[in-house]
Amino acid sequence: MSKILVFCESANGNIKSSSLELITAAKASGHEVVTCLLGSEATSLAPSSGNYGATSSVVCSDASLDAYNSDAYFNALEAIIEKVAPTIVLASGSAPARDVFPKLAAKFDSGVAADCTSIEFNGDNVKLSKPLYSGKCIADVDFQNSKIQFVLMRPNQLPVGEADTSATATVEEVALPAKDLRVLIKEIVQGASKRVDLTEANIIVSGGRGLKEASNFKLLEELADVIGASVGASRAVVDAGWVDHSMQVGQTGKTVAPSLYIACGISGAIQHLAGMSSSKVIVAINTDKEAPIFQKATYGIVGDALEVLPVLTEEFKKIL
Amino acid sequence: MKILVCVKQVPDTTAKLVTKADGSGIEERGFKWVMNPYDEFAVEEALQIKKENAAANITVVTLGPKARVVDTLRTALAMGCDEAALIDAPAEADSYLTANALSKFIEKEGGYDLILTGKQAIDASQSCVTQMLAENQGLAHANIVSKLDLGAEKSIVERDLSGGAKEVSEIPAKSVVGANKGLNTPRYASLPGIMKAKKKPVNEVSLSDLGLSDSDSKTKLSAYRMPAERPPIKFLDGEAAAQTSELVKLLREEAKVI
């Protein structure tokens, strides 16, 4: 039996569901599951990773790890990996994980499979599948001669198991290695949006040229407020300077896979479709019935997004 | 000052891709190969640094099958890079092999004062080589960078975080920096630039020159396939009020996503 190390992240005082997905998948493999957590909440949250199947947890609860620093995270995780000696390391593809785990893989002379959407265990080996070209096609990934198999999974892809609150993980602390940091974080400037990042969002409302002008994005914001969505945009309107690049969905923006994607006034350029077509349910609102977006949509409304959006928002208000 | 820019050749974002019947990869026809869009920001950043430091020398390096990837080097040279190097390797080279080959190349060339990359390539979207290369070289890195103020010893970088937030940090000037959209506006190659690029040297290196081989990848892709077809669309008829009330009902009762 080998060991699977699952990197867990927290939000609002709980382990994120994207991390619970991974514990659940690791547990089902039959291997020993060890979790790791960083930061001042780590010690209090770690036992609950046992609810989903971890037998033990290794934490580094140094408060300096509450905010991401590539050097500090690297040093802490290097110490944890050395201690646990896993065959497989699983992490969800959050921004910190995607930044630090490739560096750790290089340190441990190992390969990385990133942006994976499904996972299978085969003895000591893991087999993944992942979208390529932002989802224009899919392929399987196998490791070969990799000391450790580092896997970064896309969030919201796997089920979260039933919590067994009687099972808790034992917790062991490692000290943050005392090494000089080359990277010094001077300031975090919060974005205008308080919403969940597009890559982790469960519902996205997205706007394009059909919204006619930048100020009409407020219609999307109003709808997003009602249904708890994040707001995205097409490349055309990002390039036109209507909204920030962090909102761009597509091959040169963010690849997203929410449960519900509502495309408003987006015609559906290939690179946009690539970035969102793995969404579970897609609603398209567009004046042109021939627009490519309708080829990917589950439900379509042929109409002017500027007229449909306020009515739709009101309609949702009735039931939510 | 020696600057290295690492670039990758990828299919154009407008490409409609088709997988091969045997699942061994994509059909390499019917689209244009271009420089990875994020790498264009890295090339442009190097050129802007050179504008301020006339003594700077920019080498652009790529890894891939030489017959096709040489065009991407010519593009970078036409934009204004001084020298180019081509590491001839199969298209299957993974992040691990790519980062190792780049690292061995850097050692062979006696090191660089700044290494620039794109934040990720839009083919496999691994977003790994920047960090792996940094670790191989014993350097710090900053990825997803939308602003770089290069200093003599230290640089200030702005990184794009989740949800539109930005992180301002100080890193050693000699680091690996991965460019994001927003860092600058890449120039188009000028006609004289394109003419000049034809005469600039391309230094060809094989994996074996670097002590590596095709089989050094740690991950292998197989069973390439097209995504599952989506079920046919349901259009909602009537006026906006009828359309939206039907939509909300379907989202709640049929799709169960609200």
Beta-strand percentage of chain A? 25-35%
CA-based shape of chain B: globular
Largest chain-chain contact?
A-B, 102 and 83 residues
User: Helices and strands of chain B, in N-to-C order?
Assistant: EEEHEHEHEHEEEEHEEEH
Shape category of chain A: elongated
Strand content of chain B: 25-35%
How would you describe the oligomerization state of the chains in this entry? heterodimer
Helix content of chain A: 25-40%
Helix/strand order of chain A, N-terminal first: EEEHEHEHEHEEEEEEEEHEHEHEHEH
The neighbouring-strand order within the major sheet of chain B is: 9-8-7-10-6-1-4-5-11
What is the overall number of helices of chain B?
A: 6
Largest sheet of chain B: 9 strands, mixed
State Rg of chain A. Answer: 21 Å
Topology, please?
The complex is a heterodimer of chains A (320) and B (258).
Chain A: E1 3-7, E2 10-11, E3 14-15, H1 17-28, E4 32-38, H2 42-45, E5 56-60, H3 70-84, E6 88-92, H4 95-107, E7 111-116, E8 118-122, E9 125-132, E10 137-143, E11 149-153, E12 170-173, E13 184-189, E14 203-207, H5 217-227, E15 230-233, H6 235-239, E16 260-264, H7 270-276, E17 281-286, H8 293-296, E18 299-302, H9 305-319
Parallel strand pairs in A: 1-4, 1-6, 4-5, 5-12, 6-11, 7-11, 14-15, 14-16, 16-17, 17-18
Antiparallel strand pairs in A: 2-3, 8-9, 9-10
Helix pairs in contact in A: 3-4, 5-9
Chain B: E1 2-7, E2 9-11, E3 33-35, H1 37-52, E4 57-64, H2 66-79, E5 83-88, H3 95-108, E6 114-118, H4 129-136, E7 141-149, E8 154-160, E9 166-172, E10 176-179, H5 191-199, E11 202-206, E12 219-225, E13 234-235, H6 240-253
Parallel strand pairs in B: 1-4, 1-6, 4-5, 5-11, 6-10, 7-10
Antiparallel strand pairs in B: 2-3, 7-8, 8-9
